[in-house]
Amino acid sequence: xxxxxxxxxxxxxxxxxxxxxxxxxxxxxxxxxxxxxxxxxxxxxxxxxxxxxxxxxxxxxxxxxxxxxxxxxxxxxxxxxxxxxxxxxxxxxxxxxxxxxxxxxxxxxxxxxxxxxxxxxxxxxxxxxxxxxxxxxxxxxxxxxxxxxxxxxxxxxxxxxxxxxxxxxxxxxxxxxxxxxxxxxxxxxxxxxxxxxxxx
Length: 200
Fold this sequence. Notes:
Blueprint (H helix, E strand, L loop, with lengths): L3 E4 L10 H9 L3 H11 L2 H8 L4 H11 L4 H10 L8 H12 L3 E6 L3 H10 L8 E4 H4 L6 H10 L7 E5 L2 H8 L4 E4 L3 H10 L4
Parallel strand pairs: 1-2, 1-4, 2-3, 4-5
Helix pairs in contact: 1-2, 4-5
């Protein structure tokens, strides 16, 4: 029986569409493509998620690899988090699940600095019984260890958990440990999936 729902953060509870953000700032030309690869598509972005580099060092490294856009890279790293706004239907879902007595947890690949900003900005974090952020532990989804560590930290039985994430490989990794999973596409289909599990 499912007792706990584990949610991802970006693209599940908060919007995250960096390509749209770049197009708004710079149009749909070559500059946007270069900046996407230099920032959001870079290895350093993953290092930020893992917590092995901070924003100051990330700016320096990214800018050194793309010197002609150094100022743009600095702007993006310190301001991109503003594109993350609550997906309201899913925030309401958190409230509904909480009222039904489910335990709620957060498991997300997220930068330390960015997480601090959104945590201070949005009140829905109060619904969670436990929060596990990749950069706080030096681990990343879909690595097996991040799921194991989270289950241990919060004394969770995987057979009693369901995980909601927008990335199929992250769900597959959770299932290997016995956690049920739903690949998030949109709020309406998520509710339908939860009904199948008799959670709603």
